[in-house]
Amino acid sequence: MAKLEAKDQSSKIKVQRSKVLNIVGARPNFMKIAPIQREMLRRSDEFLPLIVHTGQHYDAAMSESFFADLGIPEPDHHLEIGSASHAVQTARIMIAFEQVVLKEKPDWVLVVGDVNSTIACALVCSKLGVKVAHVEAGLRSGDMSMPEEVNRLLTDRISDLLLTPSMDGDENLKREGVAESKIKFVGNVMIDSLFFSLERSKNSNVLEELNLTNKEYAVTTLHRPSNVDKRETFAGILNALREISAKIPVIFPAHPRTKARILEFGFDDLIKNSDIKLIEPLGYLDFLRLYSGSRLVLTDSGGLQEETTALGIPCLTLRENTERPITIELGTNQLVGVDPGTIKKSALEILENPDTAAAKIPPLWDGKTAERICDALLDAKK
Ligand code: UD1
Fold this sequence. Notes:
about 375 residues; alpha/beta; Rossmann fold; 2 domains; 7-stranded parallel β-sheet; 6-stranded parallel β-sheet; binds uridine-diphosphate-N-acetylglucosamine
C-alpha cells in the first residue's frame, strides 16, 4: 500500500506539466508553431502540448502541405471554420474554440502572429480567465487600416505573456504602458523553422521543374487586400513586375485571393505576355528552396521580409509601412511602396549592383527561440 502511495506521489509530481494549446489557423502560423510544438514534445516531462487548428486556411496548399513539410502532428482539435467575412470568421472561431478550452482546461493558450485566429482565440481565453502567451508580440506598423495591426494591438493588450521577436517590440509595448514583467524578448521563432529546414529544402526539385538557374530569377508574392483588391494598385504593381521581368524571370506563386483578383480584373493576359510565371502556392520546403535561390524578392508578406533578412537576400517590400523595421535597419529589406516607377527603379538598382553591403542577422534570430519560449512559459508559472 505504502509503495502504491509512493508511486502515486511520484506520478502526481509528473502530472504537474503545463498543458498548452498551440493555435494555428492561417498559413503564416504553421512555421511559427512547428518548432514550439517540437520543443514542447521534447520536454514532455514539463509540457503537454496540443495542436488546435481553427481551419481559417483549408486548401491543401495553404494548410495540409505545411503540416507534412514541417512535421507538425495532426491537430488534436480541428475547428473547420473556413473563409467568411472578418466578423463571421472571428465569431465562429470564438464559439468553437470556447468549447475546446472548456473541455481541455489548459494552463496556457499560445497564439502566434496577427491573423484573425490569433485575436479570436486570445479573446476567448481572456473571457474565461485562461492565460495567453502571444508569440511575435509588440510589432507595430502604425497602420490601423490593416486588419493585422488591429489583431496585434488587441491580442497584446489581453495577453499575459508577451514574447517579442526583436527589441523594437519591447519598446513599443513599454511605450503602450505594458508592465515589463509581462514582456520577454525571445527572438524570431520563424527563423527556427528556416534553419531547421534549410538543408532539407535542397532536396526540392522546384528549380528544375520551373527550369530556373540559381540567382537568375526573382520571386514575388502578393496577397494584401490593399494591394490586390484595388484594380489600379494591382495593375500598377503588375506593370512594374512586367518591366522587371524583361530583365529577369519573375516567379509568382499566387495566394487564392490574388488568383481570384487576377481572373476578376482580367489581368491574366497582362501576365501571359511577359516573363512573369504565375504558379500555384508552394509548400514550405519548395518555397524555401525557391526564395533562397533567388536574386531578389518582391513581396507584401510580413514573414518573407524576415526570411530574406535571415538569408541575406535582397527584398523589396511593396507596402507603405512595415511592422518589422529591424529588417530594414539590419537586414536586406527596403520599403518601396506601390508606385510602379519606384518599384522598377529599386529592382533594377539591385540587379545592377550584385555587391550590396552585407546584412546582419538580428539578435536572437538564431534557431533557438522555441527553447526560450518554453523557458519563459515555465518562468511565468513560478
Ligand atoms: C490571412 C491573414 C493575413 C495573412 C494571410 C496569409 C487575417 C485577417 N489575414 O489573410 O494576415 O498574411 O492569411 O495567407 O487573418 N482562401 C482560399 N483557401 C484558403 C484560404 C483562403 O481559397 O485555404 C481564399 C478565400 O477566398 C478567402 C480568401 O482567400 O476568402 C482570404 O482568406 P482569409 O483567411 O480571410 O485571409 P487571407 O487573405 O488569407
